[in-house]
Known about the structure:
Elements: E1 11-14, E2 21-24, H1 28-46, H2 53-67, H3 79-82, E3 87-91, E4 98-101, E5 105-109, H4 110-115, H5 119-134, H6 137-147, H7 167-170, H8 177-182, H9 188-204, H10 212-225, H11 232-237, H12 241-252, H13 265-272, E6 276-277, E7 285-287, E8 290-293, E9 298-301, E10 307-310, E11 315-318, E12 324-330, H14 336-344, E13 349-359, E14 362-373, E15 376-387, E16 390-399, H15 403-415, E17 418-419, H16 423-426, E18 431-437, H17 444-447, H18 459-465, E19 479-483
Parallel strand pairs: 3-5
Antiparallel strand pairs: 1-2, 4-5, 6-18, 7-8, 8-9, 9-17, 10-11, 11-12, 12-16, 13-14, 14-15, 15-16, 18-19
Helix pairs in contact: 2-5, 5-9, 5-10, 9-12, 10-12, 10-18
Amino acid sequence: MLAITLTACGTTNQNFITGENQRGAYSWQQERELGAQADQQIIAQFGLYTEDPELTAYVERVAQNVLETSAYTDPSTPAEVRSTPFVFRILDSPVVNAFALPGGFMYVTRGLLTYLENEAQLAVVLGHEIGHVLGRHSSEQAARAQLNQFGLIGAAVLGGVVGGGNVAQGILEYGSTGLQLLQLKWGRGAEREADMAGVAYAEFAGYDAAEAARFFRALDRLSAQSGGGSIPNFMSTHPDPAEREQTIPQLANSDPRYQGEMINAEEYLRQIEGVVVGEDPRQGYVEDGAFYHPELRFRFDVPRGWQTQNSPMAFVMGEPNGQALIQLTLASQSSAEAAARELASQQGVQVGRGGATTVNGNRAYRLDGAAQQQNGTIGFVATFIEYGGNVYQILGLTAQNALQQYGGTFVDVSESFSRLTDQRYLNRQPSRLEVTRAPGGATISSLLRGRTLPSGLTEEEVAIMNQVELNQPIPTGQRVKLPE
């Protein structure tokens, strides 16, 4: 985990969209340094989608076209900003999300790309994130956080997860710079400013920005049909998709001199065909009460009813009421004992019992104890297992007074860690996006008959992905996106 090395201070900086001065926390150089540090954490957390270089180049090309119409190229914008390379990345995550970090780092997920219908919608999303960077909204929000005596960077507990809270809403809220930055929700003023900028930049680049209204309608449906659970990341920083459905066309039509016409649906759908849909089982998946990792060839039990979330950085399990967490990560040390000693040496950690053991023939080391954090003391059981040339850390966290209740579960999970040999689980492949033409009288419901949906994806979500209703007749020959 990277540590933040910048010192934030209240200052006045320039909003490059409006040209006006506003309160901020960082200079542009500091924003760039902060974004660069956080960028590496975001990559470690979510992973880059690298298997389709043509798609990555396409998104970069659209982004750069939109960027060229923005305040980034305005002669009145300081040279240090105009000479800053802006970075656009596709993250290997099924979550529908797009976000920006200070200093010109912007991201879209492969999950978001599957819910867009054309290049015009992509251009508006990218323009919106460019607006957040040039409006310097992260710096502004960080300054407000300081004024309210809230720190920008949260303290990490045991080098990883912060325990407690509602696991369903925040199961992966790590104490890292990147993810803490993502928790800074934009104010309504910043959102409106980014909306106006994004629409204008897309229109200046020749796109029909009003197309984005259908995407925000899809987001609203996606949130409603799952009680808000499908898109927590996008909704946390981009609220009110229903409002945007109304305001985006108004913004797009506000200046007749700059109304673009380009949509580019055919090219967009060609580019995203074959993208991985839903969770990629090659990176690990939950099935039949266990977590399986085909590439690393191990498995272990998942407690019944516990929520789970997987990422390249960690696999996390949460007790349904948020009373306990179990986290699997890779330790950086070369042996289980060295990793255990490293944890035990951390400030605020008090070890109760500890010692060497074995887990299904693998050398291991287990210790338990308590750790001080800002909002109290948590109890933990940590098991370090040497396997396949790596050291795996299985860390169970709960309130100190609940350790007796959950400690047995923590140990049982670690004891179930074993070599994966069953070919049924080793050979699992991801679902990919197929783009096909609809026959006469077809609906998404009828087109999905006989298809196996990837885990976690519903028929209704496939309809939302196509920005149509589940049983709505689709015009003959219209292109539709289906998981294969």
